[in-house]
Amino acid sequence: MATGGSEAEGALLLPEHEVGDPAGAAPGNASVLGAVFNVSTSVVGAGIMSIPAAMRVLGVAPALALIVGVALLANVAVDFMLRYTRGTPSYAALMGGSFGRAGAKLLNVFIAFNCVGTLTVYLIIIGDVMSGPVGSGEAHAGVLPEWFGPHWWTGRDAVLVAAAVILLPLVLQKHVDSLRYTSAVSILLAAVFMLITMGIAVYTVFTGTAKMPRMLPDFSTLASPFELFTAVPVIVVAFTFHFNVHPIRAELSKTSDMKSAVRISLVLCAAIYAAVGFFGFLLFGDATMPDVLANFDRSSGSGVPQALNDAARLSYALHLVLVFPLLHYSLRVNVDELLFPGRRPLATDTRRFVALTAVLMAVLYVLAIAIPSIWTVFRYSGSTFAVCISLIFPGAIVLRDVHGIAKRKDKALAAMMITLAVITSSIAIASNVMSSIKGEVKGQPRREVWRGRRGDPEPVSMEDDIPLSQHVCRGDAELIGMEDGIPLSRRVHRGYPELIGMEDAIPPLSLSHDIFVAPTPLS
């Protein structure tokens, strides 16, 4: 049976040392407001960027219901964790108390992988914002190429190297308490992003350019109804913060205030998610990308000054820069415990601290380069690691009930949480795998596109493996090139130098592989 001071911490515990923050954070003197900021910072991360895309898949009403439902389940899970916290300083020590050292180690591994996935998403989004997304098949430029044009230093690789260098002073902080001010600023920036998005959406409503959001899912765009379940992990990831509950609780002057801090934070974060999801979907409709920040470029079509679009993108990119070190702190201590169990606290060993930080940053950089889309990370990480951390493990602690304090309704609720988590995650994983297999084997030829001539929406068949730079025009079969910076509505037909318009209603999934039928130029 594990004890509080001997097991691995989900976020901050180190083995065989006195109970408390192993990295040397200040003892309990924090206020409820400070705890709200820290919990909210742990919650509102990169997940918010995929909420509009999840709303595109589910429709507005189911997505809002899912946000509320997952927030309620997160509150129940944290309540279970706090009730079973009797002298244990960490989530992993809690697991160790119920399932022994193997349970604590398993949680450490899951949290490490979850943190790696989330931090990789942070870097991907920063790359999307500054240099533009890759692998989406759509021509969305980043801030730097829009401002300065294409150069080697505006490319994704260079931008991510610069981001890693800028992040180093923050990730090298040895005490989590040192990040309290950046946490407050990060929440402010998230609110700024939300307000800018709302403002732009309201403007488009009055100018008539808003995309009317669907209240229910559009099954005609889905290969299978089970694809709806792929949006569930995205919301689960957005509410996964459980590994930071105990460290934040330990810094409170009254640990009993943690429940109130968590509830306030969940209400605040659910409101932010709902607002960003709805107004983002209202802005971009079915063209909403997995990383909605990529939609805020010169081709957004919102009609507002580009400076406002850039402000929306940059505010949230800076928010992620400030949130990054808090999550990296948890990752570093987890990995240190897994690789160097029984060693002295990481904060007291500068060489080990710096070496581990450098290696982790290098790994995250490589993953951010190799994985182009945040949806890829969310749909797999959310349906495995995140769902176990946030729902399955807290429920298992209650069912194990080593202290004999669980009531019948507690065990029933815990069993329901685990059942829902297992069913939805299994369906989501199966749907993701099948979608990937079909995409690779069949080339996804089921997409349709419309004629390039405005006012003629007749669909034509096409193959899905035509590269973006090689679009075939019927009537002039030779391949035509294009500049990467030309918006999708401004393709130039060889032999007809006039700009060819196209319908705005083209489904986003087909935009990367269009066959144009436009033998006659627009007058």
UniProtKB/TrEMBL annotation:
It comes from Triticum urartu. Keywords: Amino-acid transport, Membrane, Transmembrane, Transmembrane helix, Transport. The keyword Transport applies. Its main location: membrane. This is Amino acid transporter transmembrane domain-containing protein. It holds the Pfam family Aa_trans. GO terms for molecular function: L-amino acid transmembrane transporter activity. It is a multi-pass membrane protein. It is found in: Membrane. One of its GO terms (cellular component) is organelle membrane. Residues 29-429 form the Amino acid transporter transmembrane domain. InterPro entries: AA_transpt_TM. Coiled coil: none annotated.
